[in-house]
Amino acid sequence: YGMALDRAQLSEIPWSQESVPQGAFTTINALLADGTRVVLSPMEINEPVLLTKLSGPNGRATLSNMMTPGMRAVTIRTDEIAGVGGFVTPGDRVDVVLTRDAGEIQEVAKNAQGAAGSTITSEIVVADAKVLSVGQGADERQTTPQISNSVTIEVTTDGAQKVALARTVGTLSLSLRSASEGGDGKNGVTTISSFGGSIASDVQAAAGSVFDAVTKEPEKPKFKTVIVTRGTKAEEYQVPSRDQK
Q1: Rounded to whole angstroms, how far apart are CA atoms 52 and 1?
Q2: pLDDT digits 0-9 by tens, 160-175
C-alpha cells in the first residue's frame, strides 16, 4: 500500500487472452502511459495489475481512493479496550456501539419495564462497517495487532451523521464482526433489565430499599398522659411512652 509503481517492479508474461481479468493492464506502457500510479490495495508477486487496485495517473495513496463510491469515512477516537484490545486491522468489519444515559424516554421505559437503572442503554448505531485504517495504517495485509487511539471506518452518509451525533451524547466502542458473518443483524436497545437474573434483581432491590427509606414517613412518638395533683389542683402532662421502639 502506498508504493509507486515503476518499470523495475513490473514485467510482462504470457497470459491467455480468454482468462485476462477485467480491468487488468496488458502492457507496462499502457499502465504508465499517463504517469506514475500508486498501489491502493495489497498485491502479490506475479498478480495481474488491476485498475481498481491503483490510483489514477500521478495520484497519491489517500483514503478517498480506497473508498466505495457514495460512501463516507469517519474517524472514531477510541482506546485499547474500546478498540477490542487492538485486534482491529484494516479490512475488518465492525459494529459501532453507543452507550449513554438515555433518560426518561418512552422506548427505554417500554424495554426496561420500569426496572431500576434502565436509563443506561447500549445500542448499535452503525453495523457492518469496513475498517479503512487503524491509526495511520491502511494496509489490509497488516496482521499484527496495532494499539491506536483512532479507527477510520467506511459508512453511508446516514451512518456518518449517526456517528457524529452519537459521539456527543455517549461513549462509542467497537465490536469486531466475524469474517464469515453477513448482514446487519439485530440492532435493539439493551438496558440493565436485559441482563435478568441476579444482576437486575440486585439493582432493583437496592433501588427499592433506597426508595422506601426516602419515601417512608417517620413514626410519630407515642405519649402517655400523667395527672399530677397538688392540693386540690390537678394538672395533666404528656410524657413519652416507654413502650415505643
Answers
A1: 13
A2: 999 999 988 888 888 8
Q: Take residue 63 and report the three cell numbers written for it.
A: 483514503
24 in any annotated domain = yes
φ, ψ of residue 134 to 5 degrees: the values are -120, 115
What pTM did the predictor assign? 0.54
pLDDT at 204: 52
**Domains held by the chain: number:** 1
Long-range CB contacts (within 8 A, 24+) of 36-39: 36/4, 36/5, 36/6, 37/4, 37/5, 38/2, 38/3, 38/4, 38/5, 38/65, 39/1, 39/2, 39/3, 39/4, 39/5
pLDDT in tens, 152-209: 899 999 999 999 999 888 888 888 888 777 666 566 777 666 665 554 455 455 545 5
Q: Please tell me the distance from the alpha carbon of residue 123 to that of residue 102, in angstroms, as a whole number.
A: 11
Does residue 30 lie in a domain region? yes
**Amino acid identity at 113:** Q
The C-alpha cell of 188 is what? 435493539
Q: Which domain holds residue 11?
A: 1-61
Counting every residue written for the chain, the total comes to 245
Question: At 147, phi and psi to the nearest 5?
Answer: -90, 115
HSE of 211, CA atoms in CB hemisphere, 13 A: 8
Strand, coil or helix: 47: coil
> What are 53-87's pLDDT values in tens digits?
787 777 665 667 677 889 999 988 865 445 555 67
Residue 196 within a domain: no
